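Data availability (excerpt). The following record was deposited with the supplementary files.
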Amino acid sequence: MSENYKIDFSRWISRQNALANRGDGKFIRQNEARLRKRLVLLWKKQINWVIKEMGELKQFQTNAATPEDFVDGMPEQKAIAETIVASMRVSLAKGGKTIVKKLSLGDFGITFNLQNKEAIRFLGNKLSHELSNYRGNIHRTTTNRISKILRDAAKSGASYSETSKLIRQQAESGVFSQARGELIATREVGVAYEKGNDIPVRDFIAKNPDRRVLKLWRTVGDGRVTDKCRANASEGWISYSQEFSSGDEIAPRDDHPRCRCFTERKIEAPKK
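Predicted structure:
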């Protein structure tokens, strides 16, 4: 996760315009906003805890405790993980129900709810990841950043007030900021919605191997679309079993946390 969390409003507006053309665009925006707000509130608790507990940083100048040891005790990790998964659950359900209706999958006996085995696996893996200490984990990114501030402060002999100010600044343009909350919310809600679209389509393919299903990569269409995403879109409609040129099966891209792309799907009429 990048530490540059400054909001690019031209990019944000472009994305909102693109979402407006999707049936669930309003829902996606609202879910993103709710998740961002909840994350910021939880991060505020973490900021207050760090500043209250760090004292004069003297403890970090001995081998008895290190910044890493200290931030390991930062609260709200579980609450943050559960909050993210709760928002993803809502988007997953909406995406699944939307694609079932859009492609009339119910006519083929395809339904979707959160008891779907793949949906349970997807959400369970996400929660496990956020409660772990893996690279890319949101809590780990936060603690790494705060650890660095504390290490630098101890090395330079910065005062408690100076260090507190640096941590408070993270609420404006760092790991506790609204901009980072926007980035995370956009990513997680979008991924879950697309996964919700994907699961019923794969169920349909498994039950109807004789029917051809196609997919199309859609971009926002502005100047900030990456070359990889543009190349995916230029492929046009491809078989659902085929990967796009970026190596992704569906949008958004796995290696691009700011990806604003989405996938369209269609079922070809049977040959007469």
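Summary of structural features: The mean pLDDT is 87.
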